[in-house]
Design brief:
Blueprint lengths: L1 H8 L5 H10 L2 H31 L1
Helix pairs in contact: 1-3
Length: 58
């Protein structure tokens, strides 16, 4: 399921996998994993920006 969310997030998921996910996956699981992925990605980007600013201005 995590693999499906990651490939969908980057836009590289194939049609067959997408159909399989809709047929067998539970929407709540995809929503929770998608939200967690979004929060982690946002936190990572924020951390990189803060680290860059620290070294650029410090």
């Amino acid at each position: 399921m995590l693999h499906s969310v990651l490939t969908a997030a980057f836009g590289v998921q194939g049609g067959r996998n997408r159909e399989r996910d809709f047929a067998h996956g539970k929407p709540m699981h995809f929503a929770i994993i998608g939200l967690a992925f979004t929060l982690v990605l946002t936190g990572l980007l924020f951390g990189v920006v803060q680290l860059t600013l620290y070294f650029a201005l410090g």
